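Risk register update: the risk that structure generation would not scale has been downgraded. Supporting records follow, first protein first.
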Amino acid sequence: MRIAFDYQIFFLQSYGGISRYFVLLAEQLIAKNINIGIFAPFYKNHYLKRLTTNVVHGYAFSAYPQRSSFLMRQLNNMFSNNAINNWNPQIVHETYYSKKGSAPKGSLTVITVYDMIQELFADSFYAHSNTTNLKKIAIERADHVICISENTRQDLFRLFGTKENKVSVVHLGVENSLLDYQVKKNQQLRPYILFVAARGAYKNFDRFVQAFASSKRLKNEFDIIAFGGGKFSFSEIALFSKLGLKIDQVRQISGDDTFLNQLYDQATAFVYPSLYEGFGLPPLEAMARNCPVISSNTSSMPEVLGDAAEFFDPTKNDDIATAIERVVFSSSRTDQLIKLGQKRIKNFSWEHCGDQTIDIYRSL
């Protein structure tokens, strides 16, 4: 069986969840002796370095030349389609949404849908974004659609009217490196609650901070560390000041996966206040590092986290604050969540994701 991945996400992302998904999936296909080819003629994605040159057909750029994005896309599209056509795969798994497919005549098309965030939270995105239209076209064109959660699958049916018999659910996995990696703890850090994600709109970071600040106990004894998402905006800094939070009590930090592992290890708890997620890997990553998880009770979160998280209503400040207090001020609840988390992550492995995906390819 010959499976091709097209260039799209490796052109768009240097790092990012979708490109990492396809590289980890490729590793599983290779381990199962599936003939996999990634056709990304000119790419900037760092995760592709994990794969061998006989799998990745293309040339790596640290960054594209200025003002060359349109040209690079056109070159990628032309050379990728030609290379895929010559390779003659049984299935092309498209890595993002496009108007025209990458599969040559006689090949089948699979596409993965991660969430319906742009459709449900349109105000949070660029007004002239064409992603929803391209997504509809790509889904209609595909012979089969993979959703990364049952919640996303149900949203797809409700919002796009996609036929149920062409959609399957395949959950993502937790990387083994998260379970095995050892870190040296820094005992000088003040106790903190960890947030990992972009912070805008549906990610609900501002409400989380407001809930935190509404609790005198939390405010007096903990800091907040926000990993990733870029530096705080002026409006965020103004909010912290208005809420009476001390200077540096809410800190933004960036770094690599190794540093993130250290933050998980040392955090008193991990909080995930998002209003919507197609799957939500960070809570599982926290569980893998023995960090208790406190999460919103919306979208895919109950499906993914099961009984291994303390849940709250993400629209209510008092509910968020109370849920955090129930965990960080209770050693017994903390220990319970850590044990439940270690049990829960056994349900999510990249090997299982690979096996289920291969089953879908074979069924086609």
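Supporting record for the second protein:
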Amino acid sequence: MEVICVDNVHQALPEGCRLLETKGVEVSTRNGKAWALTAPLATTYRQPCQRVLFWKERNANPFFHLMECLWMLAGRNDVAWISEYSSNIQNYSDDGFTFNGAYGYRWRKQFGFDQFSLIVAALKENAQDRRQVLQMWSPADLQNQDLTKDVPCNTSAYFQVVEGSLDMLVSNRSNDLIWGAYGANAVHFSFLQEVVASFAGFPVGKYTQVSMNTHVYERHFPLARSLASYAPDVLGGQRHADSDYYASKHSKVLAYPVVQDPRYWMEDLCRFTDEVTRGYQNSFFPEVAIPMRDAWRVWKRQKASTSRVSNACQIIEDCCKASDWKKAALDWIRR
């Protein structure tokens, strides 16, 4: 077992790339050559709500990451809503309309009941409960894996209150380190953890992901080598790579709480996904989600305009109150 223990995903990415560069072996996959670890990898985040990536080399799209979280928690599996933020995601749909392996749909609808609500209720009733498992893998996936483009990579999530805070462990069968583990997954599942914790009445604890197979595809070897150069020098005692969450040379950015009032959060989420602009009880939507959506649409729809960058950035500057998403969004648009 390989282990990486960091504060946040910004630190994890270069350390994971260094690990694959030094310990990975070259393998052949159905997607071409890759580096892969020969042992499972456990990554623990001490501050999982610090979920935004700032590496310019990685160039992660913060708009897509944020919107996919909300799409998942709404329990959706439709292509139309989420493909506004990434046209490439349509390639993983079998029929052009829905996704077979959509996590949020499996969390909330696919198995005939809302797993999310049951887990929250159980934790509220008994903080010592150790049976709260969120299932994403179905036995039917064993039969369907050659018939679909979209089989879940993350299979189960486990929730447990430890020393008064809600810890979460996610199991993963196979993970692209750059695009999956230290890209989308760190955002999606920390978001899920924060919402479950808020609904159940606990602070957010640690988040651990255990991946059976961790790899980087050949097309990303140069990027992985570049990011690995920022990893700590263990012999020299260099600390983890800094991130803007605690940088000292410029303004510190903070994680904006996702939930202000859990009684109305799901209702607010539905209002957001249904394009309602007013009447929110949770400030996260008008102060973070809506400005991010509006800025994306300006940037995307004003392609012919020379001012689309400045127009989109102005919306973020004026309206987005989450300093971490704001910085990532401004940097990404300007790049």
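The mean pLDDT is 94. On this basis the risk owner (M.S.) recommends closing the item.
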